[in-house]
Amino acid sequence: MDFETGYTMTIGGRPASGDGTIDVVNPADGDVFAQAPRATAADLDAAVVAARAAFPAWRDTPIVERRRILSEAAQRIGEHAEALGRLFTREQGRPLPLAIQEVKGGAWWLRATTKLDLPVEVTEDSETRRIEVHHVPLGVVCAIVPWNFPVLLAMWKIAPALLAGNTMVLKPSPFTPLCMLKIGELLRGLVPDGVLNIVTGGDELGPMMTSHPGFAKISFTGSTATGKRVMESAAKDLKRVTLELGGNDAAIVMPDIDLDAVVEQIFHGAFYNSAQVCIATKRMYIHEDIYDALRDRLHEIARRVTVGDGAAPGTDYGPIQNKPQHDRVMALIDEAKASGLTLLQGKEVPAKGYFVPITIVDNPPEDAHVVTEEAFGPILPLLKFRDIDDVIARANDSDYGLGGAVWSRDINKAVEIARRMDTGTIWINQNLQNTPFTPFAGAKQSGIGVENGAAGLLEFTQPRTIFIPKAAIA
Ligand code: NAD
């Protein structure tokens, strides 16, 4: 299969080209290198009609057979990981080995999720009656994903939704449409027609989808601002929603850490994917006893690593994925400079393309924008603390509540701190970890609902409770 050209949507198992195209830009040079189809309202209708038509048969397919098909789909995606990875780097910017890793990881996630089950629960089994709770699929799911993990986050939706017996219309970000278009093409003929439809388009397509009456549920990953619009639109006909939104994760670094052992991981937890990660460390609270030492070590790494074209060997960090995001991050850096904050930056970055130097901000005030806003780019504020109650209060003082991290050699103490953090996930002496068997959910304005794990699977179902008498009425 050709991964370089011929990008088509998948609607009802067949290719569809839309009306017109959207440009796809390589963020490493800012040049347009491909076009993706622009779906019309009629294309979206056709995708919803195909998904609705496919639903009864897919719902009634035994789960073991759905498992088999999804595992084969995972296998097929994994077999094309190198070609998809190259395409991923061109559209997303991430260094090639890590791009291939995401495709392989996405395929693995799809297969692993099929190990989950939807058993019938029995809440009472007495002499007079048995009460069974069945978890039945909802219908057609609208899935909307962002550009920072375009394959993995799509799999987080496809795997549980289809395993549970739903069908789907999925929309990748207009900034990164190509890998998912090719994955749609790869799976034609394997996943039954209409079960998984992939559509692409510009900014108009998302709102068209969320207001479309043919969907039973919206599963959305993106910013908090957009999530609020999605929820508003879904309210019109009470579509179910799962919203995985933004974060401003705090890490708390205790004075007893073994600096040599963890400094690389701490850096990685903040800057992986050029910090375009919802669960990246975005505020780092460091105990005053080790503040200077850790700051200097982080700066040292920032000066050592290479930011550049993800297709070039030896690149550690790629560009910001798109121009609007690049401009937002640069504006935050410029504002920090203008307000007299101390910036510790890494190596110079290429002038062409959407590059931002790795930037550490040395102990800014708590109310600086670099602290209060989700930068979603490589600008990390380091903040000093002395008292544990004070730092927990500062970490929790955010409308976001996605994740957080505690770094300490005293695991019990770290767990105690973790239990007081007002977020959906807290990592101890690690970061950025998730598994298909573990619920992932944002607290506060970081989201509504759950992805992954048994709880995430249940979000794609509706309980159907059946009261069964033990004897017929005489
Ligand atoms: P975004 O909200 O701009 O876009 C996300 C998706 O929504 C894209 O596909 C976009 O085309 C679509 N969209 C835009 N406007 C829409 C509308 N009105 N109705 C429906 N769909 C619409 O987010 P982004 O810039 O692509 O991604 C970055 C954000 O995503 C960050 O805030 C990040 O923290 C968040 N994120 C969250 C998670 C998580 O699991 N919690 C994971 C990754 C990213």
UniProtKB/TrEMBL annotation:
Assigned protein family: Belongs to the aldehyde dehydrogenase family.
PROSITE patterns according to UniProt: ALDEHYDE_DEHYDR_GLU
Lineage, broadest ranks: Bacteria, Pseudomonadati, Pseudomonadota, Alphaproteobacteria, Sphingomonadales
Keyword field: Oxidoreductase
GO MF annotation list: oxidoreductase activity, acting on the aldehyde or oxo group of donors, NAD or NADP as acceptor
Species the sequence originates in: Sphingomonas chungangi
Transmembrane regions listed in the UniProt entry: none
Stretches assigned to the Aldehyde dehydrogenase domain: 19-466
Regions annotated as coiled coil: none
Signal peptide, first to last residue: none
Active site per database record: 244
Protein name per Swiss-Prot or TrEMBL: Aldehyde dehydrogenase family protein
